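Sorry, explain these tokens?

***
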Amino acid sequence: MRIGRGMMFHLTCAVSLLLAVAMGWLWIKSFGREVEHLDFQKGQERLTLRSTRGQFVVVGPADLQVSDPEITDWAGRISNHDFEWNATAKFRGLVYVEGALREGTATWQLYQHCLKREREGKGLEMPTLRALQTAMENPERFAAAHFILAYAINENRKAYEIFQQSRWLDHFYTMRSSQGDQLSVSMRADPGGSSLRSRSGPDFSLRLDMQPELRELKQVERASLFHGWIFLALLVLPFAWLTRPRWRDQSWRRWSYNFVTLVLLVLCAGSAAMWVRSYRIFEQFFFERRPLKNLAGDYGDFYSFWSAGSSSGRLRLLDLEGAFGFDAFNYGYHNGANAVLWPTSGVPASGEKELNLPGIQYHQLPLSLTPAASSSGQFGGQWLAVGWWLLTALTAVLPIIWGWSALRWWRRWVRERRLQRKLCPRCGYDMRATPNRCPECGDMLAAKQETAVAASTN
């Protein structure tokens, strides 16, 4: 029965190691392209499991019902006349008109609903999206639908990336002031037509095809799980197999001690490698942005961007806060001379905190203290820089203690084994013919035999 349990443990560890390798491969591959794994039914909904940008994501259709019938009424009454249109500048031979949204109109009401849904972490409902899709084909309503969809696209990374491929001037934007949100939309107009002279709005024939973005908006993320957590969990059993006591008595205490030592040894080796690499390659990884609740500035809602980077012998952790869009920091891995971003206020600000210790540097810039009139907008955050040499030294302490203890145990075990076999404990020469003194190195054996016998008895 004992042999059966041991074989099962070995087999489970091997399978776990193979799965960890497969998960690492999938983790890397998911940054290059999206991978769909399976579709499954849950109730009346069809859900899809995907791997994208380093995580498993379950996506499904948007909400099938609206919470208030008035929302459907707003979506059916939006119109181009909800905007006050003005001529704007030309760009690359194209003419754009800017429309300022009038407060209290159906489009303004629908925008407020979209804003509420976004702050709750939800997208637009399916009936609303279908109404907007219909309005995009109506010459009297397409600009209002474009405005609402552009806002929704701005909060959906994949739809935003599709939209930004060649359409960056056809966009929605908002400026915040003490009087409230100032909402506008920029769209193409006919350079020789009457739309500019009459200020009637953009040209319907030059409208954008937003069907690809609409398809993305109709799919909502339901759940996600970082590939890295699964990868680390799958490595637990292979590490446990490597650290299982083999020559000493097995105990949970000794097993745990070996396990922690191995983990720290791997971290020590990784820190040493990154220490050397950081002087040759500057690199940084940006995680997905997350909204800061109940905070907004002159440039829109505030978000927090987390990143981890390495450069000039330091590990750099950054939490940057500000009114940034998706294009402010590209999600994922970046390297190069300008990969590591370390923003500063540019002017002394009351409340800034800084800590400098050997190998550690910490800086905090409160968001509310950053000058709002800065050309780069409002931002703040905190960042921590830790020297790789310090991490290497700290993670090396326990492995060194373990290695010294193991070396002493091994030398004692070799000496006792030689004494039991009548070999010289110093050089290993056969001393059966001369039991009291080694003819090779002159070591005295009698006293050491008595010590070994006493040690084995104890």
Remarks:
- Residues 175-179, 194-198, 371-376 have pLDDT under 50 and may be disordered.
- The longest helix spans residues 388-420.
- The longest strand covers residues 300-311.
- Residues 136 and 453 are 94 Å apart (CA to CA).
